[in-house]
TrEMBL record:
UniProt superkingdom: Eukaryota
Protein name per UniProt: non-specific serine/threonine protein kinase
Residue spans crossing the bilayer: none
Molecular function via GO: ATP binding; protein serine/threonine kinase activity
Keyword Signal: no
Domain Protein kinase: 1-89
EC number(s) reported in the record: 2.7.11.1
Database matches in Pfam families: Pkinase
Length: 89
């Protein structure tokens, strides 16, 4: 996922600013999305069909860009889908 963020800029892909190897840990400095992960939202809120469609549309846009560049994201899950405070995915 770090390589995807680094190498593929798109409005629906989190922007990565830098990464550091500290000992055996990888530290990543990336765009802060204050809305949190989709997991947190769906466990505390019932989403409308329109909201679900908007999330799906944004995720599919990002995947289409990645697929067009030969990248397959193999770990799509609600923990990996982040939102801004105003709901941008």
């Amino acid at each position: 996922q770090v390589v995807i963020m680094r190498d593929h800029q798109h409005e629906n892909v989190v922007e990565m600013y830098n990464s550091y190897l500290v000992g055996d840990e990888l530290w990543v400095v990336m765009e802060f999305l204050e809305g949190g992960a989709l997991t947190d939202i769906v466990t505390h809120t019932r989403m409308s069909e329109e909201q679900i469609a908007a999330v799906c549309r944004s995720v599919l846009r990002a995947l289409a860009v990645l697929h067009a560049q030969g990248v397959i994201h193999r770990d799509i899950k609600s923990d990996s889908i982040l939102l801004t405070h105003d709901g941008r995915v």
